[in-house]
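Ticket #4471: structure export looks truncated?
Reporter: QA, pipeline team
Priority: medium

Steps to reproduce: submit the single chain below to the structure queue and open the exported record.
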Amino acid sequence: MEVHVNYLAVAAATIASYILGAIWYGAIFSKTWMRLTGITEMKPKPVNIILVLVAMFVMAYVLKHSIVFGDTYLHVSGAAGGLEGAFFLWLGYIATVTLITKLYENKPWGLWLLDNAFWLISLMVMGTILSLWT
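Actual output as written to the record:
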């Protein structure tokens, strides 16, 4: 099955996710996040910002494929398809992997909840953009 990927939509989803992250971790939950991680100063290195953008681009690209799969085989399309694809990618990959990491690293549950709430919302924003902007 060939998947048509609108790279402009993938880029828009990437930027939206990055902006959401900046607001989430910078403006809304910065003190909570710093307390839970033990980080005292948030100054990301330029190379880290680039790597985060690349990772988010890959995530949006893969999410687009998941949305197409849902449209083709599950007959769920539009914003609902984007939200469903985003939820199941979050549940199957992000929530589970970060849970395992949390259990072995013994980080606070609050950090797991804060991070996972961000990733769920971020994926849903990306899924909506990717499903509506074909």
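Status: closed, not a bug. The export was complete when the record was re-opened. Leaving a note from the reviewer for reference: The chain is about 80% helix and 0% strand.
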